[in-house]
Amino acid sequence: MGQGSSKREIDKGMRLYSEQKPEAAINEWKSALRRMTKKEKLPVKFNTLNYLCMAYFDTGKYREVLACANQQLEMLNSKTMCNNADFMQEAYFNLARGYEKLSEFKKSISYAKSCIEREDNNENAKAIKSFATVCLAKAYHGLSDFYNAINNFDSVVNKTETSPSVHMKFLVYESLGQLFAKLRDYDTAHLYYDKCLDIVQQDAATLTKYKRRIQSQIALPMLHMGRFNDAMEYCETSMKDAMLRADRPVQARCLFTFAEIHRKRKDFERSFPRYESAYSLFVEMGDRLNQVEVLGGMAKCMAALRDFEQAIEINHKALQLAEEIGNKVGLLDCNVRLAELYVITGNTFVGHQCEDNVSRLTAELELFCGVCGESMGQIPEHLDKLPCGHLIHSKCTPHLSRYTWGRKGRKRPCPSCRNRSSGNPVLSR
Ligand SMILES: [Zn+2]
Ligand SMILES: [Zn+2]
Hints:
With 429 residues, this protein is mainly alpha-helical. It has a domain of 38 residues. Strands 1-2 form a two-stranded antiparallel ribbon. The C terminus is likely disordered. One zinc ion (ZN) binds next to strand 2. The site of one zinc ion has 7 residues, from strand 2.
């Protein structure tokens, strides 16, 4: 009897999930799991945990994702299941993306790599491998390793043997949008988000949850382009939908963008409480990378209100978090703001220490254009992505596309690659 009713609950959960009611689906699946006896076939139990991971992920319950994935691992270690390697890969994938969202980037990288190293002898294994590569790239991005992030994103969309699914393209373009937004190249970020919007519009039925997600993100580059009203409109639509669907990650993202819009309009009374709401949601979810970003906005508010003491305190809080998770760009931004604040408040000694940190971090991040040698990512500027994964200023690209003297028909190599090795990886192609 127990088996029949758990099957019914699993199906009901699926139906609720497809109707975008993830919380109700979670309740069905949890109750189905409780009902399962020891005799229940293990793959059924394993897959129910997979469904739960999916819904927990959508609602921002990342710690629960890890709990389910660990339960899956336990099952695999205690019993011999058929196709053990397939199941193992799925459990590792759930761990990889759970850790990525919780900003445990090194753990995420190691689980993602375990997924990818697997032989892909069937379609499902291949698909998971691609998803795990996106996850790996996102974790590199979390550590501000832009070169490895770009290389992995590109490897997913440039696969020659199979063309990537729309779903996969969406995930990669979305992540590249985030990467360029982080480097303050808002034009390129907008371009990638726009590609995502196109994908969502083409396949509206299956990609509904992605629509609000991309609307909440495209608002940010719009804001930086001075399109306040458009940004507001996208954010409002996205927020409404996210509230209906218990989508906490998108709610938090919208609140953050609302705060940014109000701050840019110098309406700090509206801005600050929205940062606070976004912050508490990100704390609830355990998303520390976004906490760093929100704290940065709060600190800017305080500095604009000339409450320098508060601004310094909030920046230190952000700095500590960025340090914990190994997010170097976050550390860099905090030090830039602190250097200025300490100089304003007369503490030039500490101010200079922060400036030294800025130089050190910029060097560690290798955020220099290989052509002109100037820094990248500090001011809004158009950047270009080279085939090797290195970035240069768009204004410096014409220099690279000129032919090299005496080597007619051959493009100049990427300056960063040439400096790294004695060979010419781009030239030799
Ligand atoms: Zn340059
Ligand atoms: Zn290069």
